[in-house]
Structures are given as C-alpha cells and as structure tokens.
Write a structure and sequence with these properties.
By secondary structure, this protein is an alpha+beta fold. The chain is built from seven helices and 17 strands. The chain has helices at 199-214, 232-245, 250-258, 282-299, 302-320, 354-373, 377-398, and strands spanning 2-7, 12-17, 28-33, 44-46, 52-54, 67-72, 86-88, 93-112, 117-123, 125-126, 132-133, 141-145, 149-154, 159-170, 174-183, 331-332, 351-352. The strands form six sheets. Strands 7, 8, 9, 12, 13, 14 and 15 form a seven-stranded antiparallel beta sheet that branches. It starts with a strand and ends in an 8-residue tail after the last helix.
C-alpha cells in the first residue's frame, strides 16, 4: 500500500492505493487533518491542470484549513458508518463516504450547541481536493440551524449521493455521531435474474441493475442527483431494462400518460414532466412515441395505445407545421425556442439536422405500426408514407457515400 499526498492553495488530498493481490474483507476508517502545512521545502507540487512547481524554503501557498473524515469501503461490500465520532470545528468540514452511489434521504446524528449552522451537501463523486462535485454545485446545499444538544435530522427530499459533506459555518463545534441514508424502494427488488460463467459480465449486469435502481423514483428519472426528473429520452432507455427486470410495469404506463396531460394546443409537449417549468426538447417528444411503442411490444397493452393515438396525431401535426418546403424535413433555426437536444451531442443544431430527421422517421414508423395494431388503418397508411418520405429526403441530403456515413 502506498500513500500519496497532494496540495494546492485550496486544500490537501491524501489518497490510498491498494496494490498486490491481497483483499480487504472489512471497511477501513481513515481520518486525517490537513490543518497543518502540507508543503515542505523541496517538494514538487503537481496540479490537475498539468502545471508543476518546486516548493521554496518559504512556502508561498496558504495552508489548507480542512478536516476530512473518510469511511473507505471496498466495492461490492456493504458500507458501514464511521467507527468513531467526528468533531467538526467552526470553519471546517468533514466528508463521509457511504461506499456506493445510492438514492434516498440523507440523515445525520449530531450534537452541537444552539445556533451552530451546518451546511449539508451531497454528491455522487469527489475531486482530488475534497470538493464534492455534481452538476448543480452549491445549489444543492441544505442549511441546518441547530438547537442545543443531540438531534437526528433527516432530509425531506431525495438525493442521489455517495458523499455527504458537512460544513460547520460557525457557532461552536459539532460532533457527528452518524451519517446515513434512508433508502426507498419504489418498485421493489428486481425479479429478473442474469448469471453466467464470465464474472466480468456478471459485474457489468450488477452495475446496470444498480444504476437503474437509483434512477427509479416515483417515476423513472434522468439521474438521482440533479433534476431528478422524468424525460422521454431517459425513460426510453430505462424501460428497455425494466421489461426484463420487473413484471409490474405500471411505472412506465404512468409516465407515458403523464406527457399528454401537458400537451400544448399546437401539439407539442415539454421535455420533462411533472415539472413547474416548460423544458422544450423537441426530439424528446418524438422519443415519447417510441417509448409508447416499446411498451406495447412488451406488454400488448392495446388500450393504452388507443388512448394515446390522438395525442400522437396532434404531435405529428406539430412537426408538419415547420417542415422545410424544399426537403420535407423538420427545420430548426436559431430564432425558434424549440430546442433540438440529441442527448448532448456536439453537433450544429440549426437548420436541417440529420439526427432530428432520424427521430422523426422512427417516431412516424412506430406510430404507423401501433395504429395498424389497433385497427387505425388510415393513420397507419399516412404515417407510413410520411416516414418513408422523411427517410428518402434524409438519405438524399445527408448521406456521404464516400465516407459511408450520414
């Protein structure tokens, strides 16, 4: 085992690297204080940005003021709480590692004088400098103003997390007795099973199941930490796993029905619901149609399809309203508020977009197939022809025969 020490003007970091062939069977609590000078004359300091320098006789960097508390857990083992109380002085913080990413309500057991202010921050990962990281940054801090004595406090809102950071903003020392997570199982444990002779594939499967597990709130969500919201693009991926893990698919059916409830007069509906804001992701509304089709393929729920087809028809009418006259493809200009998302892909999203046309073609084809299944022959014929026209126009405009790519 080797110990590596790093420092810069913000904080110090100690990492443990376990080598060799030995295996740890229990968790190992590890506590360190970086309140003293971490840099010594002659040290070579390398930063994450690639820069480096040698420390002079008089260090020119202010030492970090931080106390970190770690509970290091080996993967695939159940995490355990810290082995002893952790005292956080005013102006300092502690970080607790729960061992794996989970979704639930964080809880703390703390003794402190009246008026002590604790800021609780949760994150799925951590940087090299004791900084808990997630997309929302400090927006996800819960401030707790203490009464005197020992109290247990549990968050009302769910969080996705592995790390819990407690910062003492002042008022006296705080003694942390326990940090835990109240995990909720909305859909229960998976019923589907997979196992083979390849342990790597078994581990991949377990990781996939765990990822889905933390992404199932009272509806499938994009992530347990940030929006914690229901998007057709994310649900479309998640339900493909749910079909093989769960027999109760009411959570998928509920999500499908929730989007038409917020459909606008022009046929468009927002990219996330339920929500208080209107997130415009036009390609995600097309993916909703594909999600409905996959649900029907795996459940044969024809009543749901019949109920949803009028909303599908209105949605397709919305896309007809801004087709490019020359090509018959949906166009998106910089002046329109309808955002072509395409899952963070680094492409130009103005004008005619190949990926946008591809989703429209897929949605039209899935809509036609569902219409045919429930006896809506005219709709099936119309949408089949529209899908073929979009495919032909996209091939003509976007196909590069020399590169063999769109």
């Amino acid at each position: 085992m080797s110990i590596e020490v790093k420092a810069d003007e913000r904080a110090g970091h100690i990492s443990l690297r376990l080598g060799g062939t030995s295996f740890m069977k229990t968790t190992m609590p590890f506590f360190f204080s970086a309140a003293k000078d971490l840099e010594q004359p002659g040290w070579r300091i390398e930063k994450v940005d690639g820069s480096a320098r040698t420390v002079s006789a008089q260090p020119d960097v202010r030492p970090a003021e931080v106390i970190s508390s770690w509970n290091i857990s080996i993967p695939d083992l159940a995490p355990s709480p810290p082995g002893k109380d952790v005292i956080i002085e005013p102006g300092r913080y502690a970080i607790f590692d729960l061992g794996l990413v989970m979704s639930g309500r964080p809880a703390i057991d703390v003794s402190a004088p009246a008026g002590v202010i604790l800021d609780l921050q949760c994150a799925e990962w951590i940087s090299d400098y004791d900084r808990v990281l997630q997309a929302g940054g400090d927006k996800y801090v819960d401030r707790i103003i203490r009464r005197d004595g020992r109290q247990q406090r549990e968050n009302v809102a769910r969080r996705g997390l592995r790390y819990v950071k407690l910062f003492n903003s002042g008022g006296g020392p705080a003694t942390v007795h326990d940090v835990s997570l109240k995990v909720e199982k909305v859909v229960g444990d998976p019923e589907g099973r997979f196992e083979c002779s390849d342990e790597l594939l078994n581990r991949i499967h377990r990781n996939c199941v765990d990822t889905l597990d933390v992404s199932l709130n009272y509806h499938p969500v994009d992530c347990p930490t940030r929006e914690n919201g229901q998007y057709p693009g994310d649900n479309f991926v998640e339900v493909l796993q749910m079909f093989y893990l769960y027999s109760d698919l009411r959570i998928s059916r509920k999500g499908i029905r929730q989007f038409p409830r917020v459909q606008e007069e022009n046929g468009f509906f927002p990219g996330m619901t339920p929500a208080e804001w209107r997130h415009s992701l036009t390609d995600y509304s097309l993916i909703w149609v594909c999600w409905l089709a996959e649900h029907y393929r795996h459940t044969a729920d024809a009543d749901l399809v019949r109920d949803m087809l009028p909303y599908v028809e209105r949605l397709f009418g919305f896309f007809r309203s801004f087709k490019d006259a020359a090509h018959g493809l949906p166009q998106r200009t910089s002046t329109e508020h309808y955002w072509v998302f395409l899952d963070h892909s680094p492409i130009d999203r103005r004008g005619l977009v190949c990926g946008y046309a591809a989703w429209l073609s897929r949605a039209l084809a899935d809509g036609a197939w569902m219409a045919a299944q429930v006896g809506e022959k005219e709709k099936a014929q119309q949408w089949t022809e529209e899908a073929a026209a979009v495919r032909a126009a996209a091939r003509k405009l976007f196909w590069d025969a020399g590169a063999g790519l769109y």
